[in-house]
Amino acid sequence: MKTDRIILGIDPGTNIMGYGLIHQKGNKISLITMGILKLGSYSNHAIKLKKIFERTLGIIEEYNPDELSIEAPFFGKNVQSMLKLGRAQGVAMAAALYKDLPIFEYSPKKIKQSITGNGNASKEQVAGMLANLVKLGDAPEFLDATDGLAAAVCHYFQGDSAMQGTKYSGWKSFLKDNPGRVK
User: Which residues participate in catalysis according to the annotation?
Assistant: First the structure.
């Protein structure tokens, strides 16, 4: 495992996408940046997906991360919401795959567990722990930014065990593991 790396974390969403970047140097991490992409003003879902792809690509080109950690869609009762969230995650992953960036996927419960010790923690509890871990200044306006940051920090905490998780190093490895997702 590299001990000097930049990790991009993304919390995908079709109204707000959160992201955070950390720099790991040895066993210390520091915040590079975090933010959100607001998509609520777009009524066309395809345009939202295009904006997610473009912004993710822009972040990758600007900060040159070594790895992407992304929150996996959770299984909820609303199938339409889950499909939209899966598409949002997919286009963010496509941007990373386009730039040959290794992708690591974590469930929301796993991310919360790794940050707070409680897989059922609230967004506010996650943000509070992150404030201590990476010395956040003021709390961000949207907790989606800290959710993206949490994905990056979760990946850092996984260390060598992250290599045992879901990892895609390119289109071929993604398609091999997901033959039914592309037609």
Answer: 11, 71, 144
Q: Rounded CA gap, 131 and 73, in Å?
A: 25
CATH of domain 4-178: 3.30.420.10
Q: What is the pLDDT of residues 125-150, one digit of tens each?
A: 999 899 888 887 766 667 899 999 99
pTM of the model: 0.85
The partner residues of 23 in beta bridges, in order of sequence, read: 6, 30
Residues 6 or more apart whose CB falls under 8 angstroms from that of 81 comprise none
